[in-house]
Amino acid sequence: MDNKPICSCCSGKKSGTHELIQHWDNTYNKVETEKLGWYEENPQPSLRLINKCNLAEDAAILNVGAGSTTLIDELLKLKYTNIIANDISSNAFDILKKRIGRDSQNVKFLIDDITLPYELAKLEKVDLWHDRAVLHFFTDKNEQNAYFDLLRKLVVKNGYVIIAVFNLNGATKCSGLPVCRYDENML
Question: What is this structure's pTM?
């Protein structure tokens, strides 16, 4: 099996799942959410795209790599009732749950690795797959294939997919990890 990454900017393989969990848990333990490089106080770009989807309030919205994103807060304010947050870091979810308080009972939290899904593989179909800065961490072709296999399995026919990644001129690393950069055609 060929383990070369899809894009030429990437090389090598990432650590195993255990090391990634530890990396992201440490990141969320050591750095305040507001000081993380990807933090958005107001996730307007994502909200604008989600609004264009004209989803029903009970639409299944899966936010992969959610971390401690403020997007969950905003989706709750918009009265969405079927929000699923996924991340590999339980520490990120602890921060998110603390911030949204009682509203956390209205979100399904799945701690799972997208490339080796267990809980995610059990999900019913979703209407929207939202990824702001997860795909680019998968630098290995097998990881990328696993990501897209899961995406194809979970998104309903005529559903929506929003993916935000680094472009070809973007950063080569994020949070100390190598990233794969994309252009529109590659996606």
Answer: 0.87
